[in-house]
Amino acid sequence: MKSKNENTSRIDYGIVLCILLLAIIGLVSLYSTTVLIQGSSISMTIMQGIWYILGTAAAGMVMLFDSEQLWKVTNYLYWIGVAGLVLTLIFYDRGLAATAGSRSWINIPIINFTLQPSEFAKLPYILILAKTTTIHNATYGSRTVESDFLLLGKLIAWSIIPLALIIIQPDLGTTLVYLAILAGVILLSGIQWKILLPIISVGLIISVGTILLVVYNRDFLKDVFGFHEYQFLRVDTWLDPYHDTTASSYQVTQAFKAIGSGGVFGKGLGASEVYVPVRESDMIFATIGENFGFVGASFLIFVYFVLVYNMIKIVYDTRNEFYAYIATGVIMMIVFHVLENVGMNIGLLPVTGIPLPFVSQGGSALLGNMLGIGLIMSMRYHHRSYMFSGEDEGFH
Fold first, then answer.
1. Taking the chain, what is the end-to-end CA distance rounded to the nearest angstrom?
2. For the residues of 196-219, what is the DSSP string, one character each?
3. Are 356 and 48 in contact (CB under 8 A)?
4. 180: closest CA among 237, 135, 125, 217?
5. Phi and psi for 92 in degrees, rounded to 5?
6. What's the CA gap between 180 and 182, in Å, rounded?
7. What is the pLDDT of residues 141-161, one digit of tens each?
8. Helix, strand, coil tally for the chain in percent (to 5)
9. Which of 108, 125, 182, 378 is most exposed by smallest CB count within 10 Å?
10. Residue 92 carries which DSSP code?
């Protein structure tokens, strides 16, 4: 029988504290943006608080699922996630699609709010990659080039359907998140570098070549690959943020001004002299930089660092292969969101419409991230110090 202290230690309070701090930062920043700066009602902040409550409850429910239960439902959840992506393309919100240019949201008419199914499909996608890798490594004890190519093929095969459905929407930002999750699992899976290096090299060549074509021969990309003008504008804005500050570069340059005007300690809560479009979601970091300065922005980055550190620490403590790949996917999902969002706010990366985890306004993204935290928390809650085997009962 476990003692009270042993049961208490099953909750990772380091992660709980980080999420609590991010929730406070998010709600305060959202209130500052919508109520104090924009003069809107407090309803958006209240709704975000409700989403935090729902997300906490969802994370608690997921935490109760142990590894065996997660293993058994993984395939079902994956196909449910795929079905959600298919339904999105059929029943997408026409109004949002017209303004945002993407069929990524479904409107729930009864309660009158929108959901983004691709945010929820990330978790089943992570689970199927983790299960596939665990089974493969248990089946092929010795690593060979043939077995590694087979594993790579399996991971890509599971990725094709969700990626294709998200590209059709189209949603470049979410596509990149899925690719980041896939890359993280592949790197941790043990596939030999003699296979990965050529693939990475080809990827880099294609990326650099595409950028060069955008600069020198974008007609080729239009005619052959069907690129759109807005995609070229994003690259133009990234390479030269000040080339068109009244149109395509307006959002980015305004974010620069807001963050820079915050100085070291910021102007204070609700103080703003710079208009930044979409401050409450994609550009929430501009509010943090302007209101709380370099110190406040650095503290936010530090909280993310501690959160990721605690998630990695759980993997080492539990020593469970299936959990390790799940954690890799969740960590890559959160880290990529942070790097891309902060990067695009300060001009290091192109604008892709990716929200800042646990801080930006948006119920679907917040709930999806909280479900990921629930998966991580379940590792500590159901601590087992063995590694799965494909021959174990219930893991076929």
1. 31
2. HHHHHHHHHHHHHHHHHHHHH-HH
3. no
4. 125
5. -65, 155
6. 5
7. 778 888 999 999 999 999 999
8. 70, 0, 25
9. 108
10. B
CA dihedral 233, 234, 236, 238 (to 10 degrees): 160
Taking 70 as the threshold, does the pLDDT of residue 30 lie above it?
yes
Residue type, 329: G
**How far lies 367's CA from each of 51, 182, 220, 309, in Å?**
7, 21, 40, 21
d(CA 108, CA 195): 45
Secondary element (H or E) of residue 170: none
Whether the CB-CB separation of 284 and 33 falls below 8 Å is answered with: yes
From 104, 179, 184, 194, select the one nearest 143 (Cα to Cα): 194
- pLDDT, one tens digit per residue, over 191-208 is 888 889 998 999 899 988
Q: What residue type is assigned to position 306 of the chain?
A: V
From CA 244, how far away is CA 82, in angstroms rounded? Answer: 39
Query: Residue 155 is inside which H or E element, if any?
Result: helix 145-168
C-alpha to C-alpha distance for 285 and 291, rounded to whole angstroms: 10
* Predicted structure pTM score: 0.89
3-state secondary structure of 308: helix
